[in-house]
Amino acid sequence: RMPVPCTGGFQYGNRWFKCHKKEGHGSLTLAQAIEQSCDVYFYQLGLKIGLTKLIAGGISLGAGDRTGIDLPSEARPDYPTAPAADYFNKRYGARGWTQQAASMNLAIGQGEDAQTVVSMARFYTALATDGEAARPQVVRGTSEKVRLFQLDSAQMSGLRAALAGVVSRGTAAASRIEGETLAGKTGTAQSGKFVGAVELNHAWFVGFAPANDPKIVVAVMLEFGGHGTRAAHIASRIIEHYLKVTLKQSLTTEGDE
Asked: Does pTM surpass 0.70?
């Protein structure tokens, strides 16, 4: 469990790093922190891992790479390069950043991490399988995959269970699909655009289903859409329709045999 329970934020030095739940989440396990999107858990995890390892891990997972989709002028995700000091000094100046603040922001997917919708869909194909990410295709051709990570069966099972918990009882619980187990993660990304004192955040959800035998991965990003729960609702409807159509086609094919 986390060293410091979530009380709605995390004090580090003279700065208060907020959690999205003002009243706090209390003390959580990693799986519970994923389910509830507890920022405070991941602030502390980011500090424990450290900026150098966080950036190296993201790079190894392809966070700064184009997916290679068969479309012209694909945008590259924005992600720090190594060494960290060179990247942040160039961007903010030597006195304009600290390793600790950068680690905490990066640990919750904020700050210098801006992914494209297709890059997140590609990454989730690795989560939905055995760590191999598929190159996205508009025109179907030969399947191309690259291994992003290697987890043992217990680790993979635990990760998928946590992602399934996001939808069954966590931040996307309102988007459950009756009779199916959907796994995924909500996200609320800062946009830097304000109306008055209110920032217009982007709403994210990326997921796959069925959780234990994935057939489809869906990524939804609503520009200035607010909280990720809104994106999750759209994604679940897409997945539900796809699975129903697939099941109907399967039953029709079996009936013709």
From this structure: yes
